[in-house]
Amino acid sequence: MLQYGAVPVSAESIARFAGVLADRSRVAVCLALMDGRAWTAAELARHVGIARSTTSEHLTALVRAGLLVERRQGRARYLQLSGAEAAAAIEDLGAAVGERLRPTSLRTARADAQLAEARTCYDHMAGRWGVALYDALLAGDLLRNDGDLALTADGQRWAADLCDVPGGAPTGRRPLVRECLDWTERRSHLGGRLGAALLTRALAAGWVTPVTTQARALQVAEAGEQFLAELRTPAAGRLRT
Predict the structure, then answer these.
(1) CA separation for the pair 129, 135 (Å, rounded)
(2) Tens digits of residue pLDDT in 205-214
């Protein structure tokens, strides 16, 4: 039996987990929940296009596998991804599949282009802009990747000032910074606690805004592009407000 972190991993456990996702409807449920919100079972059934009774069986299987968590409010059953690790697993699988977006109409082409440009990946930024943000942090000497992704000393101060994220010892299981393979760009964007904090900051500052007509899509403002340009220089420690 192998050890992955502190969790024992066996061939049987991996096969069992893969079996849970060996169903199109279950994967569609997980992809819908990548927006980070909680959905009702009825909403997921309509979105996936399957019967309520069948949806219930799929949701139970996903909860048992640890991919989803459920919350009950009155008679409503709300489901959401169990956390950033589950979201990362889904995003990584999407990147590993190797499929590009294939629009079937002008409307879907526009929607796909929005997702490819900038979107949320659970609680952090992805797409072209998310990858550009990751590259800018490296170029600005705020982040280093010499086989072990980490903030530099300047990056720790920058993260603490801009996002109120301490760059010292990790707290909890989630890493401070994590490479997340982008399924449209096939390059890394930034996940982890800092990735989540940067999305929160970007929304608050108006660097990006949600696209109301396309779930998960983000519109990048001119201020966002300017922020990105400033990050690419070592003087990026100067903060924007």
Answers:
(1) 10
(2) 999 999 988 8
Judge contact between 17 and 67, C-beta under 8 A: no
CA 48, 54, 60: angle at the middle one, nearest 5? 95
- Inter-residue contact 71 to 36 (CB < 8 Å): no
Three-class SS state of 91: helix
- Residue 113 structure tokens: 């282009």
> What digits encode the pLDDT tens for the residues 84-140?
888 888 888 877 776 554 544 555 556 678 888 999 988 999 999 999 999 999 999
Q: Which strands sit side by side in the sheet containing 68-73, from one edge to the other?
A: 39-40, 76-81, 68-73
| Domains annotated on the chain, with CATH | 2-82 (1.10.10.10), 105-237 (no CATH)
